[in-house]
Design goal:
Shape of chain A: globular
Number of strands of chain A: 0
Oligomer: heterodimer
Number of strands of chain B: 0
Radius of gyration of chain A: 21 Å
Structural class of chain A: mainly alpha
Strand content of chain A: under 5%
Strand content of chain B: under 5%
Distance between the termini of chain A: 45 Å
Radius of gyration of chain B: 26 Å
Order of helices and strands of chain A: HHHHHHHHHHHHH
Low-confidence stretches of chain A: none
Mean pLDDT of chain B: 79
Largest interface: A-B, 79 and 66 residues
Number of helices of chain B: 3
Low-confidence stretches of chain B: none
Chain lengths: 334, 132
């Protein structure tokens, strides 16, 4: 084990390729696992069985669906802008891969450790908006355009509360280095247990739910009014990529919440947070958060669009501004 | 610029190029696997629930409210960005208590005026803005 670690450290090119293969693998595996869980949990919440035919409890279903989606015809509508139409799925997926390289999964298991990690992740996360706008605009379909417009308005509105609630943590730790932020929580108290940061955590969860376009805020792809929103015209693997990127974004959202508020790879009371156990703690926290989002998605009805925008501008942003001021007071005085 | 910093940027470059390639490869596979005979005239129409589509999409209008929201976002988000460098030095001894707190309060106070202005002007109300 020691020798393997030393070998990888000496050959940095090998480490680079290994990190690339593992992280791309994690993104695709995450999409398959989350897709299966989503279908199964949605079914059980609605008192159905969900996929049951292929394999035990239907666990092979998503893999078969992946093969099926690969073998579908890729149709570009004749009125579409052909270049932009093909560019959008790539633009949707690449930022997800670029964010995964900066996530600290455990003390020694990470792609790279940037000293501006948080800013880098936020910047890459907001490229997603471009891909949605390009997808909606280029497919020359009214549903797509309306879906894209809603999505962009929603994403830029909810980016501000996300920034402000993460800023409250940065005020406390005064660093953007994600490893340093996790190490600052290695004591018995995670940031979520501070009252002011707990408010930031709740604001972050609500805004993150909207940022990843999930119900109850899934207005961009509201099936009953806009068929599928911005990816109405996409078929085959291009459609699959949007789904993979959506689950990737969900993973990123949950892992930032874990790193900033729930102690990252630290166990409770600093218990068993070595390199290996740290990764298990991190992944279990991320998956608990993602399952919570899934539970919320299948429990609450969709909100109306003006309610959605006003929730961001009238409630979340003023609350997070006040919370930021309180945090500033607490940090300087105590 | 140190060497480790350059390595970090090489990682980012690899993930940018490799991320594009990793999703471009399945498209190549899909190109060879796809069915080749099922092409009708209607396959390439825009999807509109089965009705033959009329007009282009840019013949339709959406509410001007989207534009107003984008304007406040522009004013707001750029200002929030200025808070990031402040946040790194705020908790250190470089900034004294009185100075830090008062400057942050003034900055955020002016920032929140943007929301109050938009609220008073009725940006957050969804009604017909242009009377025809």
């Amino acid at each position: 084990m020691e020798q393997i670690i030393k070998f990888i450290q000496t050959y940095s090119l090998l480490r680079m390729l290994l990190a690339f293969c593992c992280l791309i693998g994690i993104i695709f595996a995450n999409a398959i696992v989350m897709g299966y869980l989503e279908r199964k949990i949605a079914a059980r919440i609605q008192r159905r069985w969900g996929p049951m035919e292929v394999g035990l409890q239907g666990w092979l279903q998503m893999i078969l669906d992946g093969v099926k989606i690969l073998s579908k015809q890729l149709i570009v509508p004749k009125d579409a802008n052909r270049f932009l139409f093909r560019l959008a799925p790539l633009l949707c997926f690449t930022p997800v891969a670029m964010v995964f390289v900066a996530l600290p999964i455990s003390r020694s298991l990470y792609g790279i450790n940037l000293n501006i990690g948080l800013i880098y992740i936020i910047a890459m996360g907001s490229i997603n908006v471009f891909s949605i706008l390009i997808a909606g605009w280029s497919s020359n379909n009214k549903y797509s355009l309306f879906g894209a417009m809603r999505s962009v308005a929603q994403n830029i509105a909810y980016e501000v509360p996300i920034l402000l609630s993460l800023l409250a943590v940065v005020l406390t730790t005064s660093t953007f280095d994600l490893q340093e932020i996790v190490k600052a929580q290695s004591g018995p108290i995670w940031f979520v247990l501070y009252p002011n940061l707990f408010v930031a955590f709740v604001i972050y969860l609500i805004a993150g739910c909207a940022e990843t376009n999930r119900a109850p805020f899934d207005l961009p792809e509201a099936e009953s009014e806009l068929t599928a929103g911005y990816h109405t015209e996409y078929s085959g693997f291009a459609f699959g990529l949007f789904a993979i990127a959506e689950y990737g974004n969900l993973f990123i959202m949950a892992s930032i919440a874990t790193i900033m508020f729930l102690g990252g790879w630290n166990g409770p009371f600093g218990f068993l947070s070595g390199p290996v156990m740290g990764a298990i703690w991190f992944l279990s926290k991320v998956f608990i958060l993602m399952l919570t989002m899934m539970w919320v998605r299948w429990t609450y009805p969709r909100v109306r669009f003006d309610q959605l925008m006003n929730l961001a501008w009238k409630y979340l942003i003023p609350f997070s501004l006040v919370n930021l001021l309180i945090t500033a007071l607490v940090v300087k005085i105590i | 610029m140190t060497e480790s910093c350059l390595t970090d940027y090489m990682y980012i470059l690899l993930f940018m190029v490799g991320g594009c390639l990793a999703v471009f490869l399945p498209f190549v596979i899909a190109y060879y696997l796809r069915p080749k005979t099922t092409e009708y005239v209607r396959s390439f129409q825009a999807y509109e629930c089965g009705v033959t589509p009329f007009n282009q999409m840019w013949d339709y209008r959406f509410g001007v409210s989207y534009y107003l929201y984008a304007l406040i976002f522009l004013a707001f988000d750029v200002d929030v960005l200025y808070l990031f460098p402040v946040a790194t030095v705020y908790n250190t001894d470089v900034v004294s208590k009185i100075r830090g707190i008062s400057e942050l309060f003034i900055f955020i106070g002016i920032l929140s005026l943007a929301i109050i202005y938009a609220w008073v002007k009725g940006v957050f109300k969804w009604e017909r803005k242009i009377k025809s």
